Amino acid sequence: MRRLPWRVARLAESRWENDSARTLVLEVPGWPGHLAGQHVDVRLTAEDGYSTQRSYSIAAPADGERVELTVERVPDGEVSPYLADVLEIGDEVEIRGPVGGWFVWRPDGAAPVLLVAGGSGIVPLMAMVRQRRRAGSRTPFRLLYSTRDPGRRYYAEELRRPDPGLDVTYVYTRAVPEGWSRPPGRLMLDDLAAGGWPAEFAPDSYVCGPTGFVERAADLLLSLGHDPGRVRTERFGPTGG
């Protein structure tokens, strides 16, 4: 199997999604394209030759030689604080990819789609939302997004805009907006029953987030009768940032 090459990526644009998460729009000459749901490896190399790398999900569908990542700053991390706080327009990093072929969504899919995100697990799922919109797909989407509080949301303005065929439900685990009817707490069976698709609709489900969240959400979907073969998961754990 051919090894993926490292490519030089230059920061072309950036924007903050919240106080700790920054979206990076990278220009990558020779980029072969990617599918919604794939990720890349990012490598940083110091002047003394020391290098380190981390994996990041791609936040947007293929757009020529542009690759969009959303990076959350991890305290005391090696890579994320540099990408979030130091990298400037015109600066370069190395990336390798795209990686992954199971946790992807293609616009030709006919089944309804359920996206279940925990925290920064929204990133590859947002690529699917944006791919659907760009392709003019009529596939109905439901997004269930669990996050600690309203200030931790990613893509908040974009997800507020009307998007026919996309329904968004939030679950807040620590603090809720004023007047919010659901008390703060972790994802529950009732949340998935109300915000997801009935199992008899045979949806394609994509679950992404921290390992504990993903395992719990997948178990809840199975307890609701969803086909295990249609529940795809992508999880992440502590990596040092």
TrEMBL record:
Pfam families: FAD_binding_6, NAD_binding_1
Family matches, as InterPro entries: Cbr1-like_FAD-bd_dom (IPR008333), FAD-bd_FR_type (IPR017927), FNR_nucleotide-bd (IPR039261), MRET (IPR050415), OxRdtase_FAD/NAD-bd (IPR001433), Riboflavin_synthase-like_b-brl (IPR017938)
Domain of life, source organism: Bacteria
Limits of the FAD-binding FR-type domain: 4-105
UniProt keyword terms in alphabetical order: 2Fe-2S, Iron, Iron-sulfur, Metal-binding
Gene3D superfamilies per record: Nucleotide-binding domain of ferredoxin-NADP reductase (FNR) module (3.40.50.80), Translation factors (2.40.30.10)
Needed co-factor(s): FAD
Protein name: Oxidoreductase
Organism whose genome encodes this protein: Microbispora corallina
Organism lineage string: Bacteria, Bacillati, Actinomycetota, Actinomycetes, Streptosporangiales
